[in-house]
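Take a look at the protein record below and flag anything odd:
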Amino acid sequence: MDPLGLVPLTRTLVDIDSTTGREGDAARWLAAYLRARGFTVVEQAVDGDRFNVFATVDTPAVVLSTHFDCVPPFFASREDGGLVYGRGSCDAKGILAAQLTAAERLRASGETRVGLLFVVGEERGSDGARVANTQSPGCAYLVNGEPTDNRLGLATRGTLRLRVKASGRAAHSSYPELGDSAIEKLIDVLVSLRGVDLPEDPLLGRTHYSIGLIAGGVAPNVVPASAEAEVMFRTTTSGADVRERLRPLESVVAIEPVVEVPPVRMEQVPGFDTAVFPYTTDIPYLTNWGRPLLFGPGSIHVAHTDHEHVAIAELNEAVDHYVTIARELLAR
């Protein structure tokens, strides 16, 4: 298989629908392409026909990694005005293409200690990263790719997703005094949440939250016996800190944990612009893959949108930057 240039590689990947849960075709294409380029490829089975792709030449000291699943809906690639559009162009198939191109450039120069790990499932729970973490080669550094505008990440916030459940007593709405409205209890608690003093961190700032889901009741003419909401906190300290601040609310409602991802602080390389990012990545689930760095072309502001895109110039710059980062890490 002849090598593709950076932009054709990006567009070829974008044009394979790999919406989370449907990554099989993209995984098979990637594995075949990397084998044809002389890499040793391990297919890390996740479920069904979904698998991660781990490619090496020699035992890696540094691994460049990103995900190749995408959020829905799929839409194909196009080029316009120096930009590549399409689902995954920014998050994260353009990043994957830049990492692969950088690894090939390093190999051509004689540097074979850089591996590639491309995982499924990042957009829906990181099941690919969880599997990969059980199969680490013992590398020293992991350079994870997410859209950072070609800046190195200083840190990322964590997430804490909680389910808030209120219970009451059903009654006919013409006799509300015979019932106990779970919806009103839930509303009171969600309003009280605005006044909770949430944890802060000098680097990551103040924890914030959004109420993403609300459900309750059975009919307009029935006092509701149950109601619940799901609240997503973007954490700057531990989830336990947040739970402790919410404890007074538990006299009215039950608060159940759904998922927690801790904040992460990353390694640095001199000479790069840096930033703190409010989103989470696969890094917390790849703890066995070495000390983490975060870097990638593209803006998170256009990821997941109907106009997702990445600048071709930024992709080319990212290749140079990945080479520089890898060389700096290998020299340590």
About this structure: Residues 89-108 form the longest helix (20 residues). Helices lie at 6-14, 24-36, 89-108, 127-132, 182-193, 239-246, 312-330.
